[in-house]
Amino acid sequence: NAGVTQTPKFQVLKTGQSMTLQCAQDMNHNSMYWYRQDPGMGLRLIYYSASEGTTDKGEVPNGYNVSRLNKREFSLRLESAAPSQTSVYFCATSRGGGGPTFPSSYEQYFGPGTRLTVT
Amino acid sequence: GDSVTQMEGPVTLSEEAFLTINCTYTATGYPSLFWYVQYPGEGLQLLLKATKADDKGSNKGFEATYRKETTSFHLEKGSVQVSDSAVYFCALSGGGGADGLTFGKGTHLIIQP
Predict the structure, then answer these.
(1) Which residues from chain B sit within 8 angstroms of residue A113, using beta carbons?
(2) Angle at Cα B108 formed by Cα B107 and Cα B113, nearest 5°?
(3) What are the tens digits of pLDDT across the range A49-84?
């Protein structure tokens, strides 16, 4: 079992370029999440998906879009990268959670991260 | 909104010392509480969790008790090892905000031999 995988591991973009970060899980989990980690800021939620076909904004969604392609895959897209989006991006999954009304008490499992630099 | 406050490091201890990392939270609902650990260059791993008041989470010699009256979830270990050097994050979910975890800023722990 691979658990949660992310591609690529590293990426350098120029301002204005676009790219998609990929996340896949083989844990049969319903919920998937994208976070960014910045020095001194902890992790902040960008978007999440409580189930296949649904997505919701988190704390810092501006400049990003997401797609829940199927139960296994959840991608994060930067349409026009900016230096402020330089960060380490983590994908995570959990068993349950019904969105804002029924948030999850289940633990989340994290991928290894993608380190993105925008120049 | 929900928030988590934890002591910021780095915290430097000698091997076999007693460890406490303080964590307090603000949440409107009845959150679940977590401690995650991040080793250099890796993702986060769950260390322990507690889902209701007075629950104690424990794992690998680490413990934390969910204290609703003081809104705290302090991490403790009786005797730390060099291999415990990492960044530790306190987090909550289900406090009334969006699904997903709300994290503290992390505490960098350095254990010297």
Answers:
(1) 42-43
(2) 135
(3) 988 888 999 989 999 999 998 999 999 999 999 999
